[in-house]
């Protein structure tokens, strides 16, 4: 399913206090005047959230770094168009999730291409799988289930995946997730319910032996 | 919302798994992230060759254009014989016929 996020108006997430909103508005105003100090502040304030969101969706430090850089470059280049109708954090989460999903689509296409060229004998190598640093001992324990869970999260439909990641990894409220996805709280509840149901059904056999 | 298919005994394990997921999710970028973003911005700000149309700046199109130019230029006259060897144009009555 195609999934895109735009810069359209959404309601202010209620968890953001008036102080945070005022600080964000001031930061945006400085950014729009081209202040480099403001840009540095913005990066320092949001880099962990943007990076970890991208990492949750891509499970690759290199790809997450690339996406996080792209997000901040885009913010710098398009901040003039930001009218403050959504919270700054909402905008950044939107950019991070949509960019991460774009990267994932591109990676999948590249993998498919590498697979076909290897079948046709044009190339002797294919793209390497992401490295597995897990120790065998750790895999025997809960880490194995966690790894399985992450694999199944990666196979969820994009909107469910984003909703699940923002809820259970970034710990955003339902209202914040709705603002990021540009949808309603009820739709977020539905997305999360379906995501949890799918994940638990897939993980059910492994729970049996714990 | 509850699902009767879920075994009641697995709820704690599911909650524990989500807790683990939350704990390991706090990934952070490598140090000096701002410096790398700044470098990327600077690289993107570098002036491109603006007088060339955008499609020429794509290597595949540029290579195709180069190949087309090579194919169409210069080789035609070189491959043609120096004098036209037409069997009608070069013979005049009274002259010995060419062998």
How is this structure best summarized?
Chain A has 210 residues and is mostly helical.
Q: How many domains of chain A?
A: 2
Q: Rough shape of chain A?
A: globular
Name of the top-level CATH class of the largest domain in chain A: Mainly Alpha
Oligomer: heterodimer
H-E string of chain A = HHHHHHHHH
Helix content of chain B: 40-55%
Give the full name of the CATH homologous superfamily of the largest domain in chain A: RNA polymerase sigma factor, region 2, helix turn helix motif
Helix fraction of chain A, binned, reads: over 70%
Mean pLDDT of chain A: 81
GO molecular function (chain A): DNA binding; sigma factor activity
Family (chain A): Belongs to the sigma-70 factor family. ECF subfamily.
Organism (chain A): Hymenobacter ginkgonis
Domain RNA polymerase sigma-70 region (chain A): 42-108
Key features of this structure:
heterodimer, A: 210 residues, mainly alpha, Rna Polymerase Sigma Factor, Chain: A, Arc Repressor Mutant, subunit A, disordered N terminus, B: 99 residues, 4 helices
């Amino acid at each position: 399913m195609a999934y895109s996020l735009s810069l359209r108006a959404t309601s202010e997430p209620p968890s953001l206090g008036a102080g945070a909103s005022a600080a964000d508005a001031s930061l945006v105003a400085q950014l729009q005047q081209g202040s480099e100090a403001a840009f540095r502040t913005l990066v320092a304030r949001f880099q962990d959230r943007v990076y970890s969101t991208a990492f949750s969706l891509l499970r690759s430090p290199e790809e997450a770094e690339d996406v996080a850089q792209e997000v901040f470059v885009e913010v710098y280049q398009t901040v003039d168009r930001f009218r403050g109708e959504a919270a700054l954090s909402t905008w950044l989460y939107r950019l991070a999730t949509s960019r991460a999903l774009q990267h994932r689509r591109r990676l999948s296409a590249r993998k498919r291409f590498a697979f076909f060229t290897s079948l046709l004998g044009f190339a002797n190598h294919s793209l390497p799988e992401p490295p597995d640093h897990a120790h065998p001992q750790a895999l025997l324990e809960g880490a194995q289930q966690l790894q399985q869970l992450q694999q199944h999260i990666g196979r969820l439909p994009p909107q469910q995946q984003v909703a699940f990641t923002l809820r259970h990894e970034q710990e955003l409220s339902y209202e914040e997730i709705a603002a990021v996805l540009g949808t309603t709280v009820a739709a977020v509840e539905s997305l999360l319910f379906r995501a949890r149901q799918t994940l638990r059904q897939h993980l059910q056999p492994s729970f049996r032996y714990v | 919302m509850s699902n009767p298919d879920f075994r009641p005994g697995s709820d704690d394990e599911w909650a524990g798994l989500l807790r683990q997921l939350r704990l390991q999710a706090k990934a952070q970028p490598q140090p000096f992230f701002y410096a790398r973003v700044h470098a990327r911005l600077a690289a993107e700000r570098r002036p491109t060759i603006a007088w060339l149309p955008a499609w020429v700046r794509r290597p595949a199109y540029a290579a195709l254009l180069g190949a087309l130019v090579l194919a169409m230029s210069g080789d035609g006259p070189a491959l043609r014989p120096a004098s036209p060897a037409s069997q009608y144009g070069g013979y005049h009555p009274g002259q010995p016929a060419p062998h």
